[in-house]
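Subject: complex prediction, re-run

Hi both,

The earlier run crashed halfway through, so I resubmitted it with identical inputs.
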Amino acid sequence: MALLTNQLIRWFRKNKRDLPWRENPTPYCVWISEIMLQQTVVNAVIPYFRKWMEKYPDIAHLAKAKEAEVLRMWEGLGYYARARNIFKAAIEIEKKFGGRMPETWEEWRGLPGIGDYTASAIMSIAFGKPYPVLDANVRRVGRRILGMAAWDKKREKELLEFLREAMPRKNPGAFNEALMELGQKVCLPDKPLCEKCPVKRFCIGFEKNIQNLIPGKADRKITKKKTYLALFVSRGKLLIVKREKGILKDLWGFPEFQEEGEIASFIKKEGGRRFKETGKLKARIHYYTRFRDELIPFVYEVEKQFGGNAGSRRWVSFNELEKYPLPSVYRKILEELLLKTCPAKI
Ligand code: SF4
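This time it finished cleanly. Structure:
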């Protein structure tokens, strides 16, 4: 076991990437980077992380921010619940800990948006405590090393036990990061580069030639769906709605429908008697962890700004839209609409 650990850490020291959150791995930096890295690839996170640290260099700056401004900063990273939870956790750290960053696994785990994985990553990387992490990369690498083609709770426990034993007392964070990096650069989901792997002589998956069967097809199943978006335009204003729940909660977007035919009935029901469809914009694919959503946008000119500005609904001018946090895919749809209708406004 010690040999595997040494090989892995030696490989990591030689091959690790220079990443901004590795320059100064304080609990605050590790926390923000780990949350950004959930569901988002490293290269996409780098500019967001730099921008974030300029604007909110520490917990005190973050706790004083406004939630809408934090969401606006997050625009483009997706999975906005992450940003909302960071903001809630910052307020809680200010209130509960008087601005001191939590120092134990349990304190971190009790904050919004912090699961076992993130609490363990922070404790091992920022505090040097021996907590193994189990994200998708580490799970895949670990399962392959142990030759675990099948997967269930019992095997998850066994894998965690293996990681705990393999983890060095000194610098456990480097061990966790090495496994994550190995999963990102060598032990790839589809074609693992076993010939280049520093731990191939310890890998049961490689020895039995079953590495490509892990994880199995059932683990990767993605559900497909279609969503019709209606961009209602009336006298230079566009109707936007605020999401009340789900992973896009508190972000703004366009009214959504499961069937195209529902759009006309919706306008009539809302009292927008005269309307015409004026075009269809490019369909865009939005990926979530487990499903793929094809967004099909239609533009409708409506005579009346039906429904008014009640509750989670607003008719806003194109210039005002800049202030509202929108998922980036919606921002792209909006840009296309502006290019088609009034290019001078972009
Ligand atoms: S030998 Fe291949 S399957 Fe095993 S850990 Fe290395 S890259 Fe992954």
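The beta strands are 223-234, 237-242, 252-253, 256-257, 275-280, 284-287, 291-302, 313-317.

- K.
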